[in-house]
Amino acid sequence: MKPTGLLEVTAVRRVTPRVVRVTFTGDGLDSLESWPDQQLKLLFPPPGRAVRLPSADDDVMRWYQAYLAIPEDERPVMRSYTVRARDGDTIDVDFVLHSGPAGPATAWAARAAVGDVLGRYGPDPAYRRPLSTADTLLCAGDETAIPAIASILSEVDNALVFIEVADAAEEQPLPGEVRWLHRDGAEHGSPLLAAVRGATLPEGPAAWLAGEAGMVRSLRRHLVGERGLAKSAVEFTGYWRRSLTQDDAPTPEDLADAAEKLEDSAAWKGS
Length: 271
Prior knowledge:
- The protein is of the alpha/beta class.
- It contains six helices and eleven strands.
- Helices cover 24% and strands 30% of the residues.
- α4 packs parallel to α5.
- The longest helix has 19 residues.
């Protein structure tokens, strides 16, 4: 399947008060291979404009350079999402409607309607990672990690799962046992981090972590520094950054995380 193309909205529904599930169809989706934690880039057009896709081949670096070459007033905003589910020539993507000022993706999702069109890059099999074969897989994340965790739970039966959401209304049906943690309006502290710190873990687990970058970083430091997990046993991704967007420059912590992920990826490919 070509990793770039257009997506058209075929259905929109609220699955919780803060989550909108959008169903897309598009050329090539019927041949899309399925794997857990399947990432893609969505391209949101400027208001009043059609989506302009980069004119480049499927090599990701050349594609990205062509994307940057699009004039700024025509260039779509690019954001990363996870495929929630697929069925034939359609895919579902969940959008979390964060409180406060809406960014371009949140604003689009809040008014999404059948017939709307976005661009995409991915899912690209080059970024597929195998699931851990450890006896226990610890999955921990916030509401933005639910689509990936759902896909992981469809493939494994050895997961210990912790998910932080705003309140009980944001819980979603998932296979297996999930420990839900509620912020309930709290502005400081993470019930997820406290729950994982207090949890009794079996010997030799692997971990999969995703969500707000600072929280993911703290979870990883706890598991590696205090629990003694090998760095290679912890798969981690900061999906979003508090008070920052994907358009803002990376922080030193972001750069350090990216460098370590590249090292882990190189080691995995060479194994």
